[in-house]
């Protein structure tokens, strides 16, 4: 038996390595470069209208990355590829269990090994490197600094994160679980909250443009855009000129020897600072306005094409699904006794349930259990699509809040965040599949069912509905207020 276990585990290791390097190739060629574009420090409106200062910034951003940033990129890519390959292996092991391929002990050993690696990444490695990257300084400082303070700070951050995670209460049914199952349960609770917030935000973001409104969106003409560009260029030129004048006065003040001239220009310096701040605020607002006009113009042109019409039709259907998802979550919260079915899984979305009922009318021979299982799986996929629509906006907002000035550093940070969210979503999906994924007959006799290490989903369904409703309601309120204050459909 040990020889059989070793041979089967060797086959799984080969699959693990193949998935890892396939993901590495995808990360380096596609995802990482896309994240680099998302983490750019410049405003999009500056791309076609570069000022001398902007050109300097863009050239500095596009310089080849240093050794430190290459190390950050390699670490982030390896962690992402490792998390992706191990989560894929978990689903592969579930399929092997359903087909009764390999022995149950081999599947359970590799299942626990992958689960241990994933939990180590999510609970320790990713938080540690996120903290370490957030405290990263320039690539080549004038005086090399010791990384010891950053290492200590990152270690303390991980310890505090694990300490806070240990306070998440476990349901009574999981109080006697082993350490790995208990840790996974606490992580799923945290992940359910995060995914619910992302799903609510994504549902509003993806359907906002298709919601009915009494106000009509004004489509700017090409002349409107050209006029806005000239006005923005004029403001930027004035801003650059005033910056140069302020710098010249500062140099003259530093070279002056008269105490009177040192005191009096300070009043002038305060006036210059206020004028510069006012011009910078004006330039920022004009840039956003120009971006909004360009986007509305481009959207109007695209909507007139065949592909645009098809995309708008799909967007309206998806917006209708998001609305039904909101209604379903509201019904589950108000009537919690209907949120669980006989199989122990959450009730499928109203839209998916309606589609499956129509399918049963067309094909009456379809079994109710098969319909329920299919609706549950489709619901998971659609929720994943909603979450994907929000991740890009969230990542862009994070880089702006953190004021990341390096494309490579920003891409590494976002890649780690994507890995964290990906693992949390896939682990939550595995938990939800527990009641609808049949185990192999051999596991019933040996007790080596892979789902024995996974908590049941009944506890987490209501938590997702609550967080989804809170996030969707808050996002809808914020966008409605912004629409009233800043004009229709600009944000």
UniProtKB/TrEMBL annotation:
It comes from the Eukaryota. It is a multi-pass membrane protein. GO terms for cellular component: membrane. Residues 180-245 form the Golgi pH regulator conserved domain. InterPro entries: ABA_GPCR_dom, Golgi_pH-regulator_cons_dom, GPHR/GTG. Coiled coil: none annotated. Keywords: Membrane, Receptor, Transmembrane, Transmembrane helix. This is G protein-coupled receptor 89. It comes from Mycena belliarum.
